[in-house]
Amino acid sequence: MKPVLVVSHRGDNRRAPENTIASAQSAIALGADYIEFDVQQSADGVLYVMHDETVDRTTNGHGLISEMTSDEIDRLDAGSWFSAEFEGERVPRLDAFLRHIKGLCKIYCEIKQANVSDVVALLRGFGAPDDVFLGSFSADIRQEYRTIAPELRRNIQLHVAGSLENAIHHEKGHIFEFLETNITRDAVFEAKKRGLETMVFIDTPNTELFAELVRWQVDYVNLDHVALFRAVQQEVLLERQ
């Protein structure tokens, strides 16, 4: 029984502000195998690690990131909203973010709105192709990176693809992602039988499901509760020895 690989969703977002270097460092310290992060682009073409279209929720600023200059974004405080401990944490530029974590973990990059060629160029410098996989909710972005970066693995969600057949034949995915609400043992086994790796996104501390995912031999879990999942996984693995 092999361990499920842990993808830390937006870094260790329970103990540090999401999508920051601090959250990435905390996730690495917890032993995350991958860090998931999101990419947006400024008005002057600089790539940033941020989930939302606006900076309002996770910084002390206001407005669309796509309408702000890099000078404006670089001055934002991306930590105080989370706690005073992280006051002064910045919205990381993608190139700096990747430099900080290179060699320490692998990455799952979700492209929100950004120049795909520019993102791919930075990801190619991160490491071997197997160190990276890509995802996006934008059909246009998915089509573009399938074309320009065929060597990079691609994640596609069941609720986006609509079916396993579509994920394989149209999306040409490598990793098939389920949600807590649509995961079943049979669906996992069928995807694996068809040659896809499997992943589950789960943002609740559902220890019963954690244990089942280990038993079903899901390949990845994309989650917020890294330490809790690792503890549950260890218990299940010990049971099977």
Report a brief summary of the structure.
35% of the residues lie in helices and 20% in strands. With 241 residues, it is an alpha/beta fold.
What does this structure look like?
With 241 residues, the chain is of the alpha/beta class. The protein has a single domain, classed as Alpha-Beta Barrel (TIM Barrel), CATH 3.20.20.190. 35% of the residues lie in helices and 20% in strands. The chain has an eight-stranded parallel β-barrel, surrounded by five helices. The longest helix has 14 residues, at 226-239. It is globular.
List the helices and strands and how they pair.
Elements: E1 5-9, H1 21-30, E2 34-41, E3 47-49, H2 70-74, H3 94-101, E4 106-113, H4 116-124, E5 132-135, H5 139-148, E6 153-157, H6 158-161, H7 164-169, E7 175-179, H8 185-193, E8 197-202, H9 207-215, E9 220-223, H10 226-239
Parallel strand pairs: 1-2, 1-9, 2-4, 4-5, 5-6, 6-7, 7-8, 8-9
Antiparallel strand pairs: 2-3
Helix pairs in contact: 9-10
